Amino acid sequence: MKKTMVAAILMTLLAAGGAVAFGGGFGPKNDGRPGPDPERHARKLEMMSVVLDLSESQKAQIEEVFKAGFEAAEPYHEQMRQAREQIRDLVTSGSYDEAKVRELAQKVSSAEVELMVAKARTHSQVYALLTPEQRQKADKLAPLFEGRRGHHGRHGGERCR
After folding, report:
1. Among 15, 73, 13, 17, CA closest to 48
2. Do 111 and 76 form a contact (C-beta atoms < 8 A)?
3. pLDDT tens-digit profile of 79-100?
4. pTM for this prediction
5. Residue 9's closest CA among 53, 66, 71?
6. Cβ-count burial of 126 within 10 angstroms (0-12 exposed, 13-18 middle, 19+ buried)?
7. Integer Cα distance of 111 and 75 in angstroms
């Protein structure tokens, strides 16, 4: 019975596409722009709460950590959006300037580095809020969700290879 319940929970999580162990809620917003999606974030936090059996205090603290992470990440998402838009304009303008495209691509790359650092910081802060038992459970579940980033067809991942 216990194995069936665990399997059902894992299948539900996989079907939902959530990275339960520290799902950041990043991805296209409802308006299609990159950045944090509050609705997706809320679903992931709820799944984390169920699977890791978070206390109300932990949920509130993790919510604050995620909120701070989203606020810190927003300028980088905007930088990436603007640089990509400028690259698209250069490509379609008939006056292609490779040096300018490289400069803009470097801006995108730098913003991606900052986003990765911010996400790692957020994950570390969340991990620090977990009990040793919750950490063990999160560690066991994490491999199930590795490579899931690519399920949207971006940034690699198992499904894109």
Report:
1. 13
2. yes
3. 999 999 999 999 999 888 999 9
4. 0.66
5. 53
6. buried
7. 9
Residue with tokens 């596409």: 17
CA distance 148 to 95: 38
**Using CB atoms within 10 A of its CB, is residue 21 exposed (0-12), middle (13-18) or buried (19+)?**
buried
Asked if residue 34 lies in contact with residue 77, where contact means CB atoms within 8 angstroms, the answer is: yes
User: The tokens of 65 are what?
Assistant: 């950590």
The number of residues making up the chain comes to 161
3-state DSSP helix/strand/coil % of the chain, to nearest 5? 75, 5, 20
**Among the listed residues 25, 16, 143, 17, the one whose alpha carbon sits nearest the alpha carbon of residue 73:** 25
Q: What is the pLDDT of residues 141-150, one digit of tens each?
A: 888 766 555 4
Please give the C-alpha separations between residue 28 and each of 34, 59, 92, in angstroms, as whole numbers: 4, 24, 24
Under 8 Å between Cβ of 18 and 44: yes
What element of type H or E holds 28?
Answer: strand 26-28
